[in-house]
Write a structure and sequence with these properties.
The chain is mostly beta strands and about 750 residues long. Helices cover about 15% and strands about 45% of the residues.
Length: about 750
């Protein structure tokens, strides 16, 4: 008896939620006053849709319109005979007045004829409604123009053009006669509401009619599962057996877990939820979905996660005992860990016993070229993220020479390789420095914005007017106070100050960051500069017009205390003013005139008339030689501050690209040694590709590459942002390779 009462209440609620409204549809030229009249008539004339309580109707209608997600899945959240074990199923149809598209449980269907308003009444296409809601095939008699609709519920006969119909042989009056348009039969909306237990709602903003029809009751599935074991080690694959069932024999089509580790996150994979869980006891919740797309109730079980121990390195071995200088060898290790867990990272390093840990090379040794004892260090990281204790092993390199490092570099040409220098020899003394270098400067506009380097407010960082092609370099750290620092960015605008249209284009653009590591950012900027291609964009600018050509907002999250740097080539066909701003998240183009110049600090900024510097070098045979770039004040370029007009010096020549043409008498190896401090960057090598070069202290040199005898090869060099000048470019000819 209790079930019957509940079902009757549900039916009553469904019926009471079927208020329907029409909107003015210009397509059918229906006056707004007529539409409002029809709304009133349909609500008040139909005893089934007339609400007993206006508030209840309004609430129910809102729920109908808001529950789009379940309608799209074909499921209803309505009550059922037993709310905990079953749900009423509904089919949901959505039509838009005048549109030839409709949606059945969220699936789009094309209509032969759209729903439309005729004489102030809404008509629906019979064929579409019959196939998708009534699930019947109407029979049409063309001789008598009669239409018969036979369903489980009733038999209906209608005549085209007549307002009289038969429902189970009983005559009824229609509020509109069936019509045929474009070969399709349309029936008045009221006919379906009165005769087929459908509920109707309307969204006036979308002109959308929603029709719902109850199709039956679905018994919910029952979730059940069993873990393969009562506990697992953190990171271990959790296995279980699904024992779920469905009383209607519907198939189980989906499942999902939740855990007490995260009470919000859901996943079909329990291992995704607990893969990094610390040791402890966890509640695991589980539910399943049947083919009717209804979910079961959640069930809960307890699972114990045990601690994942870090790996332990037991030994490190060398494939050869006391290998010679330059002789290849391999190193292996033994360790203990959970037998099912993988080691995902090996961290090798090695150093001469005379060096400290900070000077160790961050790589696995495979050959060493200098006699002595070396400390090899290994750490392991397992899949869970545990890191082992460092294991150290001392290995000995004999004085037997198998291969010098120059011979090895010549034969292997390894990228980003550091030259051994365990005696800490001064490269400035090892190489004979070439003097009287002759530079050929290439004219262009170099615009450098690095002052203030630490940006404390929104404003103008730098600006310059030019009609020459050139390069833009910027380097700024977000020091804007909270909360104004959130969403801040760097903006570059170009204003046409000429009397004719100007085409402005950016090329070789690399805006990199954010980062607190200036060496890493400088490397990334040059990576973009020395890579082929990389065109950014072109702009056609009218006289007096100002456009944004680069905006870090939306592309780079300029975090507090983080650096953003950019290097970009540009071309212009006329006179333009280039301005660099720090801006807030909501600063628009119309706000820029309100910004003022920010005070500069001790860092450089300015406009310089040199973008490239060419240098030709004849590299002699027999002896190691070198050139020094950026070391003399006479080499540093000067310019003007575009805001104050004062003379400025570019110490180290940041933003200037050196093109070093090298012609050696013998095959020659090329190295880079930093003299002004840590150096991390990229050079454009002779094959057109970038090569990474790192030199962290004065006694370290990075191998760049090999140049062939008698042939002129050109290397492109630029001082990276964050690194320091000067640098030595060293040349070691073949005659010295066996030294």
């Amino acid at each position: 008896m209790k079930k019957s009462v509940i079902i009757l209440m549900v039916v009553s609620m469904i019926m009471s939620s079927s208020s329907f409204a029409y909107a003015n549809d210009a397509l059918f030229d229906v006056p707004e006053t007529d539409v409002k009249t029809e709304i009133t008539e349909e609500i008040t004339e139909d005893p089934q849709t007339e609400p007993e309580n206006n508030e209840a109707e309004a609430s129910d209608t809102k729920e109908d319109l808001a529950d789009d997600s379940k309608d799209a899945d074909g499921a209803s959240a309505g009550d059922s005979a037993d709310p905990s074990s079953s749900v009423i199923k509904q089919k949901v149809v959505r039509l838009i007045l005048g549109s030839d598209s409709a949606y059945v449980n969220g699936v789009k269907i094309k209509l032969d004829t759209p729903a439309e308003s005729i004489d102030g009444r809404t008509f629906l296409p019979l064929r579409f409604i019959s196939e998708n809601l009534l699930e019947v095939n109407p029979v049409f008699d063309s001789a008598t123009k009669t239409l018969k609709i036979v369903s489980k519920e009733k038999t209906v006969s209608l005549t085209i053009g007549s307002k009289q119909a038969l429902v189970n042989s009983e005559k009824i009056q229609l509020d509109g006669a069936p019509v045929v348009k474009n070969g399709s039969t349309l029936l008045p909306l009221r006919f379906f509401v009165d005769n087929y237990d459908m509920t109707i709602s309307y969204d006036p903003a979308k002109k959308e009619v929603t029709i719902k029809k109850t199709t039956g009751i679905n018994n919910l599935p029952s979730a059940d599962f069993e873990f393969a074991r009562p506990s697992y080690i953190a990171g271990q694959k959790i296995e279980y057996t699904d024992k779920s069932s469905d009383p209607d024999n519907d198939s189980i089509v989906a499942h999902e877990f939740m855990t007490s580790l995260d009470s919000v996150k859901k996943s079909a994979d329990i291992n995704q939820l607990l893969s990094k869980a610390p040791a402890g006891e966890y509640e695991v919740r589980y539910r399943v979905q049947d083919s009717q797309l209804d979910w079961s109730e959640w069930i809960s079980k307890t699972l114990v996660i045990e601690k994942n121990e870090p790996p332990v390195i037991e030994s490190v071995s060398m494939s050869k005992s006391a290998p010679g200088r330059g002789e290849s060898f391999d190193m292996t290790f033994e360790y203990s860990n959970e037998d099912w867990e993988k080691i995902i990272k090996e961290e090798w390093s090695y150093r001469h016993e005379s060096q400290g840990p900070s000077q160790a090379r961050k790589e696995k040794p495979s050959r060493i070229f200098t006699t002595g004892d070396y400390v090899v260090t290994l750490k392991l990281t397992d899949a869970y993220g545990n890191v082992s204790e460092a294991y150290e092993k001392t290995v000995k390199i004999s004085d037997r020479i198998v291969q010098t490092q120059f011979e090895y570099l010549s034969a292997s040409d390894p990228v980003n390789s550091e030259l051994e220098n365990y005696d800490n020899k001064d490269y400035n003394k090892l190489f004979q420095t070439m003097s009287e270098l002759k530079f050929i400067d290439i004219e262009g506009t170099l615009i450098m914005s690095d002052s203030p380097e630490n940006v404390y407010d929104y404003g103008i960082l730098y600006e310059e007017t030019t009609d020459l092609d050139g390069r833009i370099l910027l380097y700024h750290v977000n020091k804007i106070p909270s909360p104004r620092n959130s969403g801040a960015g760097l903006l570059i605008t170009v204003e046409n100050t000429d009397d004719k249209p100007v085409r402005f284009s950016l090329e070789k653009t690399g805006m990199k960051g954010p980062s607190t590591d200036p060496l890493a950012v400088g490397t990334k900027v040059l990576e973009a500069h020395f890579s082929p291609g990389n065109t950014y964009g072109a702009y056609d600018i009218k006289p007096g017009e100002k456009v944004s050509v680069s905006d870090s907002r939306g592309n780079i999250n300029w975090k507090p205390d983080h650096l953003v740097s950019m290097l970009s080539e540009y071309k212009t066909t006329g006179k333009v003013k280039i301005t660099i701003y720090s801006v807030g998240p909501n600063t628009g183009m119309d706000h820029l005139d309100l910004l003022t110049y920010l005070p500069k600090d001790q860092h450089p900024r300015g406009t310089f008339n040199i973008t490239h510097r060419n240098l030709s070098v004849n590299v002699p045979a027999e002896i190691p030689t070198s050139i020094v770039l950026g070391g003399k004040e006479t080499e540093w370029i000067t310019g003007d501050d575009g805001i104050t007009g004062e003379t400025v010096i570019n110490r180290g020549n940041y933003g200037v690209e050196y093109r070093v043409s090298m012609t050696p008498e013998e095959d020659t190896l090329v190295f880079l040694n930093a003299r002004g401090g840590p150096f991390k960057g990229i050079v454009g090598w002779i094959d057109g590709n970038p090569r990474y070069v790192n030199s962290y202290y004065m006694s370290s040199a990075s191998y760049v590459g090999k140049i062939p005898a008698g042939k002129t090869s050109t290397m492109r060099y630029m001082l990276p942002n964050g690194s320091s000048a000067p640098v030595i470019i060293g040349f070691v000819p073949e005659a010295q390779w066996n030294a």
